[in-house]
Design brief:
mainly alpha, globular, Helix Hairpins, 101 residues, single chain
Length: 101
């Protein structure tokens, strides 16, 4: 999937989320929400690696939750980049892929 198209779809969902819960999605919110999602990924990782309580979840539920948290972090990162007009594919090309030999 194209990152620009994905970003546009995520933006629509995020706008609805903010409207539904009645808050402004300002620059601080995008960064704080990404941090929240990173915390949830960390928690899921600890469960997945047996270093946190399972909270009644099966190993498969823990694995699924761990994998889903990656999507949350990735999507919030895309939204934060969009908020700040970051050309993420371009920056990846310049920062990472330009070093390919």
């Amino acid at each position: 999937m194209d990152l620009t198209e994905l970003s546009e779809r995520l933006e629509k969902l995020s706008v609805r989320y903010g409207e539904h819960l009645g808050f402004e999605r300002d620059a601080d919110w995008f960064l704080l929400k990404l941090q929240e999602e990173m915390g949830e990924l960390t928690q899921a990782y600890l469960q997945h690696t047996g270093r946190a309580r399972a909270k009644g979840l099966t190993p498969e539920e823990i694995r699924t939750g761990f994998h889903q948290e990656f999507a949350d972090v990735f999507c919030q990162l895309l939204l934060l980049a969009r908020q700040h007009d970051v050309d993420l594919p371009g920056e990846i090309e310049r920062k990472w892929l330009s070093r390919e030999a």
